[in-house]
Design a protein that fits this description.
Elements lengths: L1 H19 L2 E4 L10 H12 L4 H7 L4 H11 L11 H12 L3 E9 H11 L4 E5 L7 H11 L5 E4 L5 H5 L3 E5 L5 H8 L2 E5 L5 H9 L12 H5 L6 H28 L1 H4 L9 H4 L4 H22 L2 H19 L7 H20 L6 H28 L16 H25 L15 H18 L6 H7 L1 H18 L1
Parallel strand pairs: 1-2, 1-4, 2-3, 4-5, 5-6
């Protein structure tokens, strides 16, 4: 009993000594943690319990603190994988070594805040939301009551922190929102600025995955197959369809990244995505998702045939189903991915009043099924190389399944070559190709490319997205050029 009392007295003395050397209070969202915990928890809840969305909405009517508490009851993030502000953490550790007392004060639910403090192991005290939402004036009052007016330094980033800075002795700013730094300087001198985010435009382009828009070139396949590429009205419709699909796809990418934040942070490459890494503000993504989607459907409804809007709607519904459910169903996920590629071809035909023939659809379905299997194979091979045996995160596959996926993927790819050969035989008596014998060269080209990408995947040299690999790989680009030349020669 006496030992415990002595220990407590020593802790109080150490705390008093630290207080004399400064009290540094740190905000969490956007400051110490490069994202927004409430929004992350909300999307984690929606991903795990999509059918409880109306129950979640009902929680809002009981106040923000109650809403946060109920979310924290249902889901708690893996705090070890969160994107922390490394420069700020290093600075805080240095201040602690100098003798300052560190306080984490956040509007995040108290239980989550304590888990973060335990993980970082640098804070002397934690203040979080319990019965009252600890933000803005509520946070300032709590800090003044504990440490007095001008009795603490404060590190924040948002307009909610302006009230807290008014009672702080020293102002520190980390990754400030637009206009916040100027407003903080009007309150007093800003001593330290922590800026860890990358150039915004480059970050936004990465988040929207503009490079993935290359997939939308599939809308031009019906136009190329019908040999009407030089007709400007059709080409203009194809360009509009390309842009509409790009905007819609980027909207879905952002939503998918919000739903997969926890899983992406465990992935070797996906952890660097802007939302997972915290380099793009999560509220910006929430703004862009509806704006991009609305823009895509405005183009579809006002500038293109109504049936294109119908196909785009099917694509969006299918992608939502994939994001929330289908990608976690074994085998159904790869079939859905193949369908999403093929839908682009159907959309192109709808936009230009052309026919998506049986041969085109069959070829697309099988070759994209092969690439979908290749994507999963690469993920499972990497997991097996790392010695993992448990089910892959959120996918339903096991590392031991990668050999089966290789056989299924290789077979699907070779079937697509067979479909191409049957198509060439079918067009022998047609009028579209005057030198039809040139087309046979397309079959060995495709066989070579498919065999090569699967061989590279087997060696562990494949990007986790085969489309990205094909765009960056010199051999793949030359094969694509040769493929186009072969069909051009067959036309004349």
């Amino acid at each position: 009993m006496m030992e415990r009392s002595a220990s407590k007295v020593n802790e109080e003395r150490e705390g008093a000594t630290r207080a004399l050397k400064g009290i540094v209070v740190v905000d969490l969202d956007g400051t110490l943690f490069l994202s927004d915990m409430l929004v992350e928890n909300l999307f984690l809840f929606l991903r795990l319990y999509p059918l409880r969305i109306f129950e979640m909405i009902a929680w809002l009517f009981n106040g923000k603190a109650y809403f946060k508490r109920r979310l924290a009851d249902a889901v708690v993030p893996d705090v070890s994988q969160l994107p922390y502000n490394k420069d700020l953490v290093a600075w805080l550790k240095n201040r602690r070594n100098e003798g300052a007392s560190l306080i984490l004060a956040t509007a995040t639910d108290m239980r989550i805040a304590k888990k973060i403090a335990e993980h970082l192991n640098i804070f002397d005290e934690v203040l979080g939301t319990e019965s009252n939402n600890l933000s803005s004036d509520n946070k300032r009052e709590a800090l003044v009551q504990r440490y007095g007016e001008k009795g603490y330094e404060y590190v924040g980033n948002s307009s909610d922190d302006l009230a807290v800075w008014k009672s702080a002795s020293v102002i520190h700013v980390a990754n400030p929102d637009r206009g916040v730094l100027a407003a903080a300087r009007r309150i007093g001198q800003v001593q330290t600025i922590f800026e860890s985010r990358l150039p915004y435009l480059r970050t936004l382009i990465r988040a929207l995955r503009i490079h993935q828009w290359a997939k939308n070139l599939l809308v031009f396949v019906p136009l190329l197959a019908s040999h009407r590429i030089m007709e400007m009205p059709l080409l203009q419709s194809g360009l509009l369809a390309f842009l509409a699909f790009g905007a819609c796809a980027s909207s879905v990418y952002l939503l998918n990244d919000l739903l997969d934040l926890q899983e992406d942070r465990l992935h070797s490459t996906k952890r660097s995505r802007p939302l997972a890494a915290g380099t793009l503000p999560i509220l910006h993504a929430l703004f862009l998702i509806p704006v991009l989607l609305f823009g895509a459907f405005i183009v579809a409804l006002l500038l293109l045939p109504i049936r294109f809007a119908g196909v785009l709607t099917v694509y969006y519904i299918l992608t939502l189903a994939y994001s929330f459910w289908l990608k976690r169903v074994v085998m159904l996920d790869v079939v859905t991915l193949a369908m999403l590629y093929t839908v682009r071809v159907v959309a192109g035909a709808a936009a230009m009043f052309l026919m998506a023939t049986f041969w085109i659809l069959a070829f697309c379905m099988f070759i994209f099924l092969s690439l979908a299997f290749l994507k999963r194979y690469t993920e499972l091979r990497d997991a097996r190389q790392k010695g993992k045996k448990e089910e892959s995160s959120g996918r339903g596959y096991y590392p031991a399944d990668f050999e089966l996926l290789a056989s299924l993927g290789g077979a699907s790819g070779y079937i697509s070559v067979l479909v191409l050969a049957l198509y060439i035989r079918e067009t022998a008596s047609g009028t579209l190709y005057r030198s039809q014998e040139w087309m046979w060269a397309a079959c060995p080209l495709l066989l070579f490319w498919l065999s090569r990408v699967w061989l590279l995947a087997h060696r562990g040299e494949m990007h986790d997205d085969p489309i990205v690999f094909a765009l960056r790989d010199g051999v793949s680009r030359w094969v694509g050029i040769a493929f186009v030349i072969v069909f051009a020669l067959a036309t004349f």
